[in-house]
Design goal:
Layout (H helix, E strand, L loop, with lengths): L1 H26 L5 E9 L5 E9 L2 E2 L6 E3 L2 E2 H8 L11 E2 L14 H21 L1
Parallel strand pairs: 2-6
Antiparallel strand pairs: 1-2, 3-4, 4-5
Helix pairs in contact: 1-2
């Protein structure tokens, strides 16, 4: 019974994630820019938080869904985590090469920012319902 319950739990979690992704996809329009927080390894050691930008620039020819490059909005939601409509303050862009400071993951400020990111993503999901 344990394997069956685990399988059913995983299946329900996947179905819920797919519903959230489709809800998100229905709120996105062409021209929107959304942001995700990613954890990057630093060349000098350690990890830091950066912001990845996703710009929806066209519609798919089949299904008419907004696309960011070759990926749909639902794909980005499922594989790159919750996406925000505005960049979190205090984080640099993923490809920024300037020598400015970024927030380390183990810093208390970084953890606070991740909590803020999770709350904002939950609010965005509630608005999409």
């Amino acid at each position: 019974m344990g394997r069956l319950a685990r399988y059913a739990g995983d299946r329900f979690a996947r179905q819920r994630a797919n519903r959230e992704a489709l809800r998100y996809q229905n709120t996105v329009e062409v021209g929107d820019v959304h942001y995700a927080v990613v954890v990057c390894a630093s060349p000098v050691g350690g990890e830091e938080l950066r912001v990845q930008e996703y710009r929806y620039n066209r519609r798919a020819w089949l299904g008419n869904t907004p696309m960011c490059g070759p990926h749909s909005a639902a794909y980005l939601w499922l594989n790159h985590g919750p996406l925000l409509t505005s960049p979190p303050p205090g984080l640099r862009d993923l490809f920024d090469q300037s020598g400015g400071d970024s927030l380390p993951v183990d810093d208390a400020t970084g953890k606070r920012l991740l909590d803020q990111f999770a709350r904002e993503a939950a609010r965005q999901l509630e608005r999409a319902r």
